[in-house]
Amino acid sequence: MAADTGETPADGFGRVSRTKDVAFRLLALAATLIGIVSLAALLLNVAVDAVGWLDWQFLTNPPHPDPYEAGFLPALVGSIAIMLMIALVTFPLGVGAAVYLEEYADDGYLTRFIQLNIANLAGVPSVVYGLLGLGLFVGLFNIGYGTVLAAAFTIALLILPIVIISAQEAIRAVPDSQRQASYGMGATKWQTIRNVVLPRAMPGIMTGTILALGRAIGETAPLIMIAAPTTVFGLPNSFFSKVSAMPLQIYNWASYPQTEFQYGVVAAGVVTLLVVLLTINSIAIVIRNRYQQRT
Amino acid sequence: MSQPDFSHDGIRTARGTAFRYLFMLCALLSILTTVAIILTLLLDAVDFFAQVSLVDFLTGTRWSPTNEPIAFGVLPLISGTLVITIGSAMVALPIGLLTAIYLSEYASDRQRAYLKPALEVLAGVPTVVYGYFALVYVTPAIDAILPVDLSTFNALSASIMVGIMIIPMVSSISEDAMSAVPDSLRQASYGLGATKFTVSTSVVVPAALSGIFSSFILALSRAIGETMIVAIAAGQTPRMIDLTDPAGMFLDSIQPMTSAMVQIGTGDIVGQGPAYKSLFAVGLTLFVITFVMNLISELVASRYREVYR
Predict the structure, then answer these.
(1) Taking every annotated instance into account, which residue ranges of this chain make up the domain ABC transmembrane type-1 (chain A) (predicted)?
(2) How many Cα atoms within 13 Å fall on the side-chain side of residue B201?
(3) Is-cis flag, bond preceding B69, omega within 30?
(4) What is the CATH number of the domain that holds A160?
C-alpha cells in the first residue's frame, strides 16, 4: 500500500534531490494546508468579532430588531427540538435498514439496487429534500408550514442515507465468528442480531448517527423550502409549533445591513452554532474512543 | 469460509420472520424516498409546464418570476450555476488533487492522522456559516487586496468558499484511489531511477485516474447543489454568461438555480401561480443534473474498484 512507501528502501530513490521534486513536495503540502489555514483564519475572525456579543443575554433573549437586545434562544431551542425528533426518527429506521442489508439481504438484484439508491440519495442536494418535505409533509400529510414535525421529518430523510451507510459499516465490522458461535448455541437469527450483532455494533452506530445529527443541525435550505419562519419569538411548545433554527436565524440576520448585526450578532450566532456542533461531534468521538479501547 | 455457516439454517420463528419484514421495510423506505422525490417534483413541475411551455423554460434567456415582464427562462440560472461550478472547480480540483497526492505519497502516518480529520472539518462546517464568511470577510478582503471593482454580492467569493468546502470530497476519494494503486507499480518506477515527483505524477495519478475522475464529478455535483453559500454571498441577479468577458462574471452579482429557489421559498409567493410552481421546475432540473452526475461518478468508481481487487 501507499502507506508503506515511506519505510521502503525505494524511498531513497524518491529523495534524489532535484529542485522540481522538492518544489512539488512543498506545493502539495501547501495545497493540503491552504484550506485548513483559510478556515482557521476565518474562524479566528468570527471568534474575535463575537467577543462582547456572545453573552448570557444573547443566549436567553428572543430576536429583536435592536442588535443590542437581539437574542438566540428560540432558534437554539428550535434546533435542539428538531434534532431530538430527527434522532428519534432516523435511529430506528437507519439501524433497521442497515440490519436488513447486512444480515438478511442476499447479494441479489434488489439489494444492489437499494444500495445504489442509498448512495445516490446521499448525493441529492439538500434543497431538493426541502421540496420533498414541502410536497409530502406540508402538502400531502398537511403537517403545516414550518412546524417542528415537518422540519424534523424533512431533515430526517436527508440524513437517513448517511445513518444507514455508517450503521452498515459498524455491523460489517462485527466478526463473523461471533455470529457463528451464537448460531452454534442454537440461537435464532433474530436472537443473534439482538444479543450479539447489535450490542457489538452499537458504539459504531451511535457514532455514525451522532455525526449525521451534526450535519442535520447545520442544514438551512430544507427549512427554507418548507417555509420555516426565519425569525420566531416564542419557544416551540408542541410538535406543531412553528419553529426556527440556528442556521435559519443566522441566514436572516446576515441580510441585515447594520454593522452591529453583520460583525456582532451574526458572529455570536455563528460561534454558538459551531460550539453546539463541536459538542455533538465531541460526544461522538468520546463514544468511539471509549469503546475502541475496550474491544 | 472454514467455519460451517448456520445462518440460513437457523430456527425460524414467527417472531424472527416478523422482524425480517420489518427491517426490509426500513430498507425499502429509501426507494420510497427516491420515488417520493421524483413524484413531488414531477407533479408540480407538470402543473408549471401546463402554464409555461417547456421550450420557453429550457431555451429562455430571461428569468423574472415576479417582476413584469414575467419570464421563466432557466438558462440564466444555469449560467449562474455554471459560473459557481467553474469557479469552485478551479479552487477545489487542483488543491484537492495535490492534497490527495501529498496524503497518499508523501505524508507520514503521523501527519496523515492529523491532516485527514482536519480536512474533513472543511466539509463539516455548516454552509450557512461559509456563506456568512464569504459575505463579511472574504469579499471585503478581496476588495482590499485586488485592484478590481467587486460588488457586495459576487460570484468570486462564493466560488472560493464552495471550492474550499468541496476540497475534502476531492481529496478523500482521490486518495483512496491512489492508495489502491499496487505498490509494485511504484517500485518498478523507482527501480528505473524515477524521482518521487515522477512516480506521483506519471505512475500513481494515471493509474488512479478513474477514481480521481469520479471524485471530481462528485465534488462538482456537490457544488451545483450547494445552496446557502450562493444564496447569501452570490446575489440575486440572474444573468447569462457573457462570453466576451467571462472573468467579469465573477466580480458581479449572479444567481444560480439553488439561489433562485431560496428566493422564491423565502418570498411571499404562494398558491398555484407559475411563479410558485417554477420552484419545482427548477428543482427538477437541479435534481436531474446532480442525479446523472452522481450516477456517472458511481459507475466510474465501481469500474476502478474492479481493476485493482
Answers:
(1) 76-284
(2) 11
(3) yes
(4) 1.10.3720.10
B101 neighbourhood in chain A, CB within 8 Å: 28
- The domain total for chain A is 1
User: Which residue among A11, A125, A247 places its CB closest to the CB of B126?
Assistant: A247
Domain extent at residue B135: 76-307
Closest residue in chain A to residue B223, using alpha carbons only: A125
Determine the pLDDT at residue A17.
57
Residue B307 has what pLDDT?
A: 59
- pLDDT, averaged across chain A: 84
Judged against a pLDDT cut of 50, whether residue A1 lies above it is answered with no
What stretches in chain B show pLDDT beneath 70?
1-12, 268-272, 304-309
Instruction: Give the whole-angstrom CA distance, residue A146 versus residue A151.
Output: 6
> Residue B64's CB: how many other CB atoms inside 10 A?
15
Which residues span the domain enclosing A169?
Answer: 59-294
For residue B188, the number of C-alpha atoms closer than 13 Å in the C-beta half-sphere is 8
Which of B1, B3, B6 should one mutate to test binding to chain A, selecting the residue with the greatest count of A CBs within 10 A? Answer: B6
- Check if A82 contacts B (Cβ < 8 Å): no
Residue A294, pLDDT score: 53
Answer yes or no: is A36 within a domain.
no
Residue A250 is which amino acid?
I
A227: pLDDT confidence band, cut at 50, 70 and 90? confident
Query: What's the pTM?
Result: 0.86
Residue A225: C-alpha distances to residues A132, A144, B215, B254 (Å): 9, 13, 29, 21
Contact B129 A134 (CB under 8 A): no
